Amino acid sequence: MAVPVPPTELAESAPAAPPRHTGTGLARLYARRFLRNRLAVAGVAIFVLLVLFSVFGGLLTPYAYSDADFAALTQPPSGTHWFGTNQGGNDIYASAVHGLRRSLVIAVSVSVLTVVVAAVIGSSAAYFGGRVEKATLAVIHFLLVVPSFLILALVSHRLAGDWRVLIVVLTVFGWMSTARVIWSVSTSLRERDFITAAEFMGVSPARIILRHIIPNLGSLLIVNLTLGVVATVLSETALSFLGFGVQTPDVSLGTMLADGANTVTSAPWLFAFPAGLVVLLTVSMTFVGDGLRDALDPTSTTGAAGGRR
To answer: CB under 8 Å to 30, separation ≥6 — which residues?
Structure first.
């Protein structure tokens, strides 16, 4: 005859329920994975230092980027001018602070706007499907084959290189690749049960896209936002270097590189300091983007290793 087992022993012998990841638990898991990536942590540290330098670096010098010291034309670094001066007597340190701040504002603004536009257009095309999807993809593919760099150069040059106009132009011609990736991922989300349930409950398409589809693309959007900063910095620097981006009297890292390109051998400091800032900025954001991708992607080898104890 079977001997009844007390309920307490049954509870003790039953297998433990799998742990549930709450929002806070997932955030801690992602943070732990990210922090185990030393290059990603170094990238964050470098980026924070660059931001602090661009915001507060001007407090350490009595010169403004537009001030001209005619007694010190093309002078090497010294105690008075830490990074030296250019041909017009402008302090390179002050110009580097302002140029880095201008490039950061342009890069972050374009990256955020590009991701927002791409998320809305890409997820909308995937959700509605049919003719809307075909028309949207046709526009995206057409814009991808258009020589956007030439159009960017022409438009920005005709509008006198205003950095605000440059943000708009870079956004208009920079969202297509991201939108196509988002569309590709969203096509699988539109068939999920929670989308069908929301439709059955009468939720509007706009609300479904904004509240159900786009939030489920969070990791993809974050990584694209980070790497978009790198791409925008390179685009802005290239345009300004060629004379189609930010125009004088304003200063960006690209304009500083253009000014120093012709004097690399005779006055190397004019090129070295802005080039160093560009390298630090792009490398740091690349490290951060790679770290975020590994931390948020459960199939990543680095991310999976980071999640183990």
So the answer is: 295, 296
